[in-house]
Amino acid sequence: xxxxxxxxxxxxxxFADESARLASLYASGILDTPPDPAFDAITRLAAEYFHADTxxxxxxxxxxxxxxxxxxxxxxEQPREGSIFExxxxxxxxxxxxxxxxATAAAPFPxxxxxxxxxxxxxxxxxxxxxxGSLAIFCREPRGPLTPDELATLENLAEMAAAQLELQRLRRxxxxxxARRSADPFEPAPKNAWPGSSELRRALERREFVLYYQPEVxxxxxxxxxxxALIRWRHPQRGLVPPMEFIPAAEESGMILPIGDWGLxxxxxxxxxxxxxxxxHGSLRVCVNLxxxxxxxxxxxxxxxxxxxxxxxSSRQLELEMTESSIIPxxxxxxxxxxxxxxxxxxxxxxxxxxxxxxxxxxxxxxxDVLKIDRSFVGRMxxxxxxxxxxxxxxxxxxxxxxxVVAEGIETRDQYRLLRQMGCRYGQGYLFAKPxxxxxxxxxxxxxxxxxxxxxxxxxxxxxxxx
Length: 467
Prior knowledge:
Blueprint: H1 15-28, H2 40-49, E1 54-60, E2 64-72, E3 77-79, H3 84-91, E4 95-97, E5 118-125, E6 131-139, H4 148-175, H5 197-205, E7 209-218, E8 224-235, E9 239-241, H6 247-253, H7 256-277, E10 285-289, H8 292-295, H9 300-311, E11 318-323, H10 331-343, E12 347-353, H11 360-365, E13 370-373, H12 375-379, H13 385-401, E14 404-407, H14 413-422, E15 426-427, E16 436-437, H15 438-445, H16 455-458
Parallel strand pairs: 8-10, 10-11, 11-12, 12-13, 13-14, 14-15
Antiparallel strand pairs: 1-2, 1-6, 2-3, 4-5, 5-6, 7-8, 7-15, 7-16, 8-9
Helix pairs in contact: 2-4, 7-9, 9-10
């Protein structure tokens, strides 16, 4: 029998509740940071006192539970949905699951291959009493419910974690120069700035973001071999908002993390839908762009793996794209993150190659599978020898290194012909198709052999394809 003990009556959370909680969370500065050894003594005590296989402390934003300390089986991140934190938050108090084998919706054990039989979690609150995180224990052996004394002990340990969190916040405040206290990155944006973090958060909750997909084609056969996922905001008043109008604000406010997580999950689900419609789409890859802040999280591979498992998507159908500039600031973390993703079997793409910090050492050091030629080079190939030579060099470099190369921004027949003559195998651009909603892409994928019409017959020589 599954037994869930609730300390207080459950309640429905409103948008205002969550906004206040998230404001306190971001102000704490605990997110987007490495695992924190300051909490290790607490998780060790919890694991030893309750004879648990795992104890962990973490804090959750809109989509993810960020593990800051664990004792026992290693875990760095979990999706927030279905987690023990989600139950603690909705309950606004302690939660116990005495037999997860009988609870189909129970939170999963954080280990890779073993499930917990008993789970208990209690909230970690800020000084305003918002639930920012949770302390949880996981046991693989059956045991009875916590006694009142045991529950009080677990809550006391959570209070210790909350005190440590507040101490860290105060240290940051004291260390900050008084003249710069008003420059807190977690302060709300000015009222005339659009969009603010609350508007972005509301858009995410109301599912106003949508993914468009632009086909990547084999330049020889014109077969659709992949798709790049591109985000748009379907605003109720402003209409379809392009990413350049809201992504910078999302980056600045920290909302890029939950928005990026949503995009990853949405792409994985869409891949599976296309595959279910036609098993032959199992060879189709969908490329998702990662922001620098997304990419530099040490637990990214864990999170991606959980999304693949949840959606049923094969790792070989997911491609993750990042720029050189997102790698350079922390090379060691980049190596670890890329290595973890590569181990999963995910294809890795370096975007905008040649525009920033390009160096052969980067390509030799990192396990990239694909180079993307920036559209600025493709668009200037007809203007002179310099851009043409850069494109030719990148194509040859990719060939020598055993990497695929994709040319972006192909808009004319002349560009199409030049790229084929150079041996560039893959490309994308308005000459073939603009970014389209998923339902329109579905119709393209139903074309015989997924082969697009010949651009040579559609546009006169030198004429650009228009959106």
